[in-house]
Design goal:
Layout (H helix, E strand, L loop, with lengths): L2 H12 L3 H12 L5 H10 L4 H10 L11
Helix pairs in contact: 2-3, 2-4
Length: about 70
């Protein structure tokens, strides 16, 4: 799964738009995020794992590594 698909799933589950996601990331990281910059990162697949982890945590999700059976 790439970062774009991950963020789309979170958006769908939480009924959020990219504007909301960008605001959450800006608040949590202290870096500048806009809807446009987030969209660019997702299209280029350059969203950092740490940013995805921060986003998931802010929305109440745990990213847990689970070994496949």
């Amino acid at each position: 799964m790439n970062s774009r698909k991950f963020v789309k799933i979170l958006c769908a589950n939480e009924a959020l738009k990219y504007e909301n996601i960008a605001k959450i990331l800006a608040e949590k990281t202290g870096r500048h995020f806009t809807r446009s910059s987030l969209s660019d990162k997702l299209c280029k697949d350059t969203l950092r794992f740490s940013e995805a982890f921060i986003l998931a945590d802010a929305l109440g999700y745990d990213l847990v590594p689970v070994k496949r059976k």
